[in-house]
Specification:
Elements: E1 3-7, E2 10-13, E3 18-25, E4 34-39, E5 46-51, E6 58-60, E7 68-73, E8 78-83, E9 92-99, E10 114-117, E11 121-126
Parallel strand pairs: 2-11
Antiparallel strand pairs: 1-3, 3-8, 4-5, 4-9, 5-6, 7-8, 9-10, 9-11
Length: 127
């Protein structure tokens, strides 16, 4: 069974930084694009960042561009999200996701493109 486990969430003051990590198992990690999404109460899940299976192509939502950095470590089957300059509007549950198919070339910024999801980790940014 494919499993994705997020860690690194917590409470941080505005302007602070956090690093999220997602450890995967049950799939050939290096062959799959990976993404980060977030969902605030009462809102739909939204795209945050994604990285291609090759690791050469990162994508970011406009709301986090310049503040967040996605990376992957294929040797550890792990994808990370480094978050800086956090703001209260970043408060949400953050989810790690993996595409179901291997060697994809696009659609990494759509929720429907991902077949596997972690249970999420809470990020709360205080003003």
């Amino acid at each position: 069974q494919v499993q994705l486990v997020e860690s690194g969430g917590g409470l941080v003051q505005a302007g602070g930084s956090l690093r999220l990590s997602c450890v995967t198992s049950g799939l050939t990690f290096s062959n799959h694009a990976m993404g980060w999404f977030r969902q605030a109460p009462g809102k739909e899940r939204e795209f945050v960042a994604a990285i291609s299976w090759s690791g050469s192509t990162p994508y970011y939502a406009d709301t986090v561009k310049g503040r967040f950095t996605i990376s992957r470590d294929n040797a550890k089957d792990t994808v990370a999200l480094q978050m800086t300059s956090l703001q209260p509007e970043d408060t949400a549950v953050y989810y790690c996701a993996a595409e179901g198919r291997e060697y994809t070339t696009g659609n990494w910024f759509y929720t429907w493109a991902y077949d596997y999801w972690g249970r999420g980790t809470q990020i709360t940014v205080s003003s």
